[in-house]
Amino acid sequence: MSGSGVSMSFEDKLDKVRQQHATNQEQTTVILGAVEDTLRDQKTSFTPTAYFAALLSLLSQSSSGNGPINKDLATSVTYLLDLVTPHTPPAVLRSKFSQILTHLAPVLTLPEAETRLLRSSLGCLESLLVAQDAAAWALPQTQISPRRAVGGLLELAKDPRPKVRKRAQECLTAVLRNPPPSPSLDHPAADLCAEASLRRLDEVVSAADAASGKSKKQRGKAQEPQQHDPDAIHALQLVKVVAAASNGWP
């Protein structure tokens, strides 16, 4: 296969999927084959945009209606979308923002979502957000907008699962380091991220202080402070990520 507009690095990624034989990757290989068969039948060039459109349609099927999410289908489709979206033209990602976020959101907020599914979804979200322009970033969080997506990203950036938390923080870093063209040097979401990370740190510190005071009253003596409180460590990590990605506190 050698479609126009497909870079070698993109081709290499797809070849790797085609050659996978691991049991947990079988469905991904099958879905890629089905997508390519459909494109071939439609006499459509095998471009990143064509793959993106086909996979977006499949993603909508995995989370359509009010029924449960088809996790197996969503896992395979988001894995492939994570490969495709970095090669998809930014204009396409901007035009399809609401559609893809609407279908990614149920996956990103699924309590029992597996790490692999979340990491692939975060990869898709990263490419989607980096492609947005200043006009999109000006939309409020009350709308289906980049700022709303960043709000969800900030939640996952403090997730107790290390791999999910790390991938969300990497996503935040990539977004904040790639602001849309504008007179401002700071990313439009920098203030939102700074406020959220400081608020989280304040909540953790207040909770620790309250717990410490309650413990002292119950036991009648001073207690050793929690030196390795995971919530506090994660909150500090988030503050550090935002500061570093913004080249200083926004």
Give the number of DSSP strands. Answer: 0
Uncertain segments of ≥5 residues (pLDDT<50)? 1-5, 221-225
Fraction in beta strands: under 5%
* Rg from alpha-carbon coordinates: 21 Å
Mean pLDDT score: 87
Give the ordered list of helices and strands. HHHHHHHHHHHH
Note the gap between the termini: 47 Å
Q: Roughly what percent helix?
A: 55-70%
Number of helices: 12
How many strands, what sense, and barrel or not for the largest sheet?
Answer: none
Shape: globular
Structure classification? mainly alpha
Describe it:
By secondary structure, the chain is mostly helical. The chain is 66% helix and 0% strand. It contains twelve helices and no strands. Helix 3 packs antiparallel against helix 4 and helix 9 packs parallel to helix 11. The chain is globular and about 65 Å long. The N and C termini lie far apart (47 Å). The relative contact order is 0.08. The N terminus is likely disordered.
What does the secondary structure layout of this molecule look like, with pairings?
Blueprint: H1 8-18, H2 26-41, H3 48-62, H4 71-84, H5 90-95, H6 97-108, H7 115-130, H8 134-137, H9 146-156, H10 162-176, H11 190-219, H12 230-245
Helix pairs in contact: 2-4, 3-4, 3-6, 4-7, 6-7, 6-9, 7-10, 9-10, 9-11, 10-12, 11-12
Summarize the structure.
With about 250 residues, the protein is mainly alpha-helical. Helices cover about 65% and strands about 0% of the residues.
